[in-house]
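User: Before I run my own analysis I want an independent prediction to cross-check against. Here's the chain; please return only the structure tokens and, at the end, one sentence I can use as a sanity check.
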Amino acid sequence: MIENNKFIILDRDGTIIQDKNYLHDPDQVFLLPGVVKGLKKLSHKGFKFIVLTNQSGIGRGYFKESDMFLVNDRLSAILSEEGIRITRFYYCPHKPEEECRCRKPRLGMVHDACSELGLSFEDIDYVIGDKKSDVELADNIKIKSVLVMTGYGRTSIKEGVSATYIAEDLDQAADLIINDMGM
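Assistant: Structure tokens:
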């Protein structure tokens, strides 16, 4: 069981790092603007981070699961150098048409995180992401969402996605969350 249960679910590609379709090369991991500043602000307010990422490239045979682990390890190392820690990464390797239990916006990865970390849905305060599936995940958990304009955020807005908050990047998302929580 983790103490101080204030968690934020983060999407990976297009939210924390540049979205390079079917990213599988750790040398291509680049943080988006505002990520370090925003995550530091949230971390200093006591938030912990769980990354949930749909990785259908595995199921499509574009890359191996081990490649994705290397990308996650590289991301963890970059953030760790900045004093930021990701509590855990969860991923869905399935293609959308497989209709698995884990692909966002379904709750499988959230249930896994709660089970493994000793959390309940009430311990999760926000979902931050750049796609409709991230906003719908927040709706399914019954928590607030922040849609960032990095990655596919602008496309998501054009498609009519309606998040609790809209932010240019993770730094602005952090400010919105801190203000919303009255911190």
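Sanity check: The beta strands are 7-10, 48-54, 86-92, 124-129, 144-148, 165-167.
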